[in-house]
């Protein structure tokens, strides 16, 4: 007994849909395998284990009077695509901290293609002021993490900025 013409057409369309589904799955797996970058943050497991300790350290740093100040910390920092010079003042209870290590991590969500860490340098004429060049290669939302290390303690501040 032969199949009706409409049944043959239906089987052909089901076969085409099945081949398209298998092809799309294979292409998706290939792209996912090529673009895998691994964990973005190093030592993420150890940081997770010490999460409570890290929060307590930040609270203690703030309670001790450690703070950052500068244009980046204004309500809407004026940052544009390309190079932007920034100055950050690192202080404890209003007194400038000299000889500290400051860095800024630039991150884009969903990819680590443009992530960078910029080391800030202390201005020899203005103690406690650290400067550097932030370069944004794309417009949109970026995540900035400022880290200041002094006497083995680290103050972190993370926030989002919109680059125009």
TrEMBL record:
InterPro entries: FixH. It comes from the Bacteria. It holds the Pfam family FixH. This is Nitrogen fixation protein FixH.
């Amino acid at each position: 007994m032969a199949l009706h013409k409409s049944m043959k057409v239906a089987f052909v369309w089901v076969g085409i849909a099945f081949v398209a589904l298998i092809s799309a799955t294979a292409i998706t797996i290939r792209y996912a395998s090529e673009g895998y970058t691994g964990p973005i943050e190093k030592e993420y497991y150890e940081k997770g284990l010490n999460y409570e300790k890290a929060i307590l350290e930040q609270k203690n740093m703030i309670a001790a009077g450690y703070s950052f100040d500068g244009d980046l910390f204004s309500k809407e920092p004026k940052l544009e695509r390309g190079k932007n010079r920034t100055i950050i003042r690192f202080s404890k209870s209003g007194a400038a901290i000299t000889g500290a290590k400051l860095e800024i991590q630039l991150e884009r969500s969903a990819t680590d293609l443009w992530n960078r860490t910029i080391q800030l340098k202390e201005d020899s004429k203005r103690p406690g002021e650290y400067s550097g060049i932030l370069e944004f290669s794309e417009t949109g939302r970026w995540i900035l993490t400022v880290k200041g290390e002094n006497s083995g303690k680290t103050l972190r501040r993370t926030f989002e900025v919109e680059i125009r």
